[in-house]
Structures are given as C-alpha cells and as structure tokens.
Amino acid sequence: MSQNPSPAIEEGSIYDLSIPGRRASTVPTPDAGVPTAADVLPGGMLRSESPHLPEVSELDLVRHFTNLSRKNWSIEVGAYPLGSCTMKYNPKIHEQTAALPGFSRLHPWQPAEQAQGALALIWEMEQLLVEITGMARASFQPAAGAAGELTGLLVVRAYHKAQGGTPRDTVLIPDSAHGTNPATVRLAGYKVKQIPTDSRGLVDIETVRNAMDDNVAGLMLTNPNTLGLFEREIEEIAKAVHSKGGLLYYDGANLNAIVGVVRPGDMGFDVVHINMHKTFTTPHGGGGPGSGPVAVSSRLAPFLPSPIPGLDSETGRYFWEDLPQSVGRVHGFYGNFGMVVRAYTYLISLGADGLHNLSERAVLNANYLRTRLEGTYQTAHPGLCMHEFVLTARKFRKDYGIRAMDIAKRLIDKGFHPPTVYFPLVVEEAMMVEPTETESKQTLDALADAFLEIAAEAASDPDVLHEAPVRSPVGRLDEARAVRQLQTRWKPAEQQS
Ligand SMILES: Cc1ncc(COP(=O)(O)O)c(C=O)c1O
Fold it and tell me: 348, 375, 393 — which closes off a domain?
C-alpha cells in the first residue's frame, strides 16, 4: 500500500495549506479600456464578496493532489483481483487513439457528413460486437453495464408489447445474480422472481421449466455465472424460456471468460449487454462516463435506442438512422464515443486469435491461483472454474473467529487489493477472486503466497487480522454510512458535526 512520504505537510484539505496572498498563477491587470466583469455583467449577478478559495502556490497544489492520488489503489499500482469486476490493465495506446484530434475534437452536433470517420468507427465496432456476441445489431448509448441492463430490458418490454399483448410482468433471476439485475428489473417495471441455484452452483433446468409461464418476460443470466461456473444446460434453458414466449437476457459482465470462444447468440440468448470496461478494457467511469453497449437479435433490433448508424451501400457514406419503434434515447447523443474508440483499439490490436487467447489465459490464471489456494482455503464449489472462483471463509470463522472481511483487509497490508467479499450472497463468508489474464505468473504466485501467509496468521495470531489494515491511509470504514451520508464538500473543523 502506498505510504505518504511527507505526512507533516500533506494531511488534510488543500484549504489547510492556504496562506493569504499566496498564488499559483496571476492574471495581468487588463489594459485601459478593456471591460471587466463588473462593466458587462448585470449588477445583481455580481458577487458581493470574493469566493473563499484556497490560496496556494503551484508546488503546494501539485504536491497535494499527487499525494492524494497516491492514496488510491489502482491497477497501475498493483494486482486488483476483484471478482465479477474484471479489473484488468487498460493499455495506454487506447488513450492515444481516443485523443486523436479527429475523434476528440468532433462536436456531437456535427452533421454526419462531417463525421464520416467517427461513424465508420462506430459502424465497424458494431460489426465486431455483433460477430463476438452472435447478435444482429448493437447500440452504444448506455453509459455502463447497469445502464445496458436497463436498456436491454426496455427493449424486451417494447418487443413483448409490440406482439399485440401485454409486456408480461415478471423477469426470472437466479439467486446468485449481481445486485444490479433485480434493481434493473424493478426499474424497467417488472416483478422479480428469484430462482434458486442448485448444489452444483448452477441453474437447474427443471426449476426454469417450472417457473416459466405466459407472464414471464424473460430470464436474466450471467454465463459463466457469478460463482465462476459455466451454465452447462444453457441450450435447454433457452428452449424452456423460448417455448413460453420469453426472452433470454445475457449479463455480459463475465464475457471475459468466453470472448472469442463461444457466443451468447449461439447459446440461445436474445439480448446481451457488454461491460466495455471489463472485457474490452475501457475506464469504468463509476457507472457514468463509461460504456455498456446492448446487442440484440434481429427480432429485437427495431426497438434499440435511436438513432443508430446506417451505411448507404451505393455511396459508401454513413448516416444516422431513426428507428420508429425505438425505446428512445438512453443517453445524450450516441453514448460516450471515446470509450468506443478505446474498445475498438483493443479489439483491433488483439485480433480474433488474441481474443481467444485472452479468455483462455483468464481461465488458466484463475485455475492456477485456485489450485494454489485449494487445500488451505475452501472453494464454494470444487473443480475447474472459469475466469473467477469463490472461496468461503466459513471454516476460518468457525475455527479462529476470522471473517472474509478480515482476510480481505489483511491482503491490503500485504500489497494487494482485496477480492470481492460477501458476494455472491448464496455463499457464506464469500471471497470472489478474479485475477484476470493481464497478471503474470509471478504476480499470481505473490498473491497466492499472501493468501497463504494470512491463513497461517489466522491460526497463530488472529488479532493481526482483526486489526488489519495497518499500512493503509485509512483503516476500516463505515462503508454503509459513507454511502448514505456522503460528504464530498470540505468544511472547516469547527463546522464539522
Ligand atoms: C455480474 C454483473 N452484472 C452487472 C454489473 C454492473 O455493471 P456496471 O458496473 O458497468 O454498471 C456488474 C458490475 O460489476 C456485474 O459484476
């Protein structure tokens, strides 16, 4: 974990560094006759007193923000085996292509005729996604995976409605699903019906058959699922859903395990969202400025967000096409275009063989790490995994009073980001580990060694784990309170309650 090298001058807010009159830069006094703000703005809009801003030198400012940034963990600092989140390295060439002036200086209002290069890239990227997923068309408007989920379900709803009946009222979700799935279902106006995971960690075909009826709009599945296991009966599941008129939704969060090897469309899925920040290594953007494109089969294509790019085969020119049955816009303009450029760069640099290799390596890395830990840690479901695996700290809790959270926090002291903990909910004391394909064998070994050292400490000195982390800028936070009472604004000490 990064340590602050000069805590004496750096702790606290930039306001604490403020010295009256100190400046990072100065603005020259305007020449005589050049109007000032006071000359041109209406009097009522002018401030009566100067804003209370920190007065610091450029060096103070640079040091403050550099030190702050060093308190953050990132993939550039070290391994980030956060299960289900696929925190893999984002190659720097993506930033260079996204910054090319022809892409970065385009204005979204520019007519299609003046943006042919950008349209060609979106069009080609769509062809790549369609090929990778086995779908017919895709939209790049959604700004994150969860936004893609909502868009996909709105498309499902619009499709059912257009069949002349009701949009149906229920969506099936396995109990191992990510929390965004049920939240999306509710937001799209559906009821959630949870189906249990069986003892293999999989969705049982008979359970799906029994749950399907004419009111069920569809089933949302992640494959491989959030336990890191491939749903082997997927073709039978798809038949059971389709036979009752339902649709099969693919949560693409785990596409990293199968991209270039199998396609959701060939498994029977009708709608797919892709978390571009995971599989295609674009920045995540915390659910905001990212990208979660939705790809759909041909019968759902008319309902995608509009407009969508078109190609005039005679002139070879691209244009924006409005879809009359569209669910409407889900984002300003055409989504976050810079993310599409980054993901396109990734796909072009890898090529088909590279994509296949990516998945194989992700699965190999996960199984290597799993094998090194098995025996000391229990896996939730024994046997081969896909790109991630779930451990349970159940026995540590029983034997030493050590919880998954203690192990996770101790990993921080050993220089690693913790795995995802307490998810999936179906596993007691869950620790979900996803090393990704971008980590080397040396890093995987170091991570395995850290896990094994922690297991030994749990037996010999459990308090070390209870007190962890001790090497990070902050210890254990009240995460629920931090979310509910988020304070992003600095206040002087006397005003803090
Ligand atoms: C299985 C699964 N589905 C959906 C999501 C939501 O994706 P996003 O964070 O891009 O909104 C995640 C995010 O981690 C996920 O792991």
Answer: 348
Task: State residue 476's pLDDT score.
Answer: 93
Q: Specify if 88 maps to a domain.
A: no
- The pLDDT of residue 26 is 86
| CA 47 to ligand 1 center in whole angstroms | 44
Cα-based distances in Å from 170 to 160, 182, 229, 271 = 12, 11, 25, 17
Neighbours of 260 (CB within 10 A): 18
Residues 298 and 205 placed together within one structural domain of the fold: yes
Cβ(197) – ligand 1 distance below 6 Å: no
pLDDT at 288: 65
Beta bridge partners of 220: 249
Residue nearest to atom 15 of ligand 1 (CA): 253
pLDDT value for 7: 42
- Which parts of the chain have pLDDT scores under 70? 1-11, 285-288, 494-497
Rounded distance from Cα 279 to ligand 1 centre (Å): 12
Residue 390's beta-bridge partner residues? 432
289 Cα: distance to centroid of ligand 1 (angstroms): 14
Q: How far apart are CA 142 and CA 146, in angstroms?
A: 8
Atom of ligand 1 nearest to the CA of 278: 10
Residue 327 Cβ inside 6 Å of ligand 1? The answer reads: no
- pLDDT at residue number 497: 60
**Does ligand 1 come within 6 angstroms of the Cβ of 385?**
no
Q: Are residues 140 and 238 in the same domain?
A: yes
Substitution candidate for ligand 1 out of 80, 84, 281, 432 with most atoms within 8 A of CB: 84
Cβ-contact 90, 75 below 8 angstroms? yes
Residue 285: the pLDDT is: 66
pLDDT at position 12 is 74
Contact 174, 201 (CB under 8 A): no
pLDDT value at position 488? Answer: 79
- Sign of the CA dihedral 442, 443, 444, 448? positive
Ligand 1 atom having least distance to the Cα of 145: 10
Say if residue 314 is in the same domain as residue 362: no
| Cα 273 to averaged position of ligand 1 atoms, centre (Å) | 10
CB 397: neighbour CB atoms within 10 A? Answer: 16
CA distance 310 to 301: 13
Binding site membership of 84 for ligand 1 (Cβ less than 6 Å): yes
Digit-coded pLDDT (tens) for 228-248: 999 999 999 999 999 999 999
Predicted pLDDT of residue 496? 64
Is the CA virtual torsion 316, 322, 325, 330 positive or negative? positive
- Our answer on whether the CB atom of 225 is closer than 6 Å to any ligand 1 atom is no
Measured by CA distance, the residue closest to atom 10 of ligand 1 is 145
- Does 312 share its domain with 380? no
Atom number in ligand 1 closest to CA 226: 1
Q: Which of residues 17, 36, 70 is at a domain's end?
A: 70
434 lines ligand 1 (CB under 6 A): no
Q: What is the pTM of this model?
A: 0.91
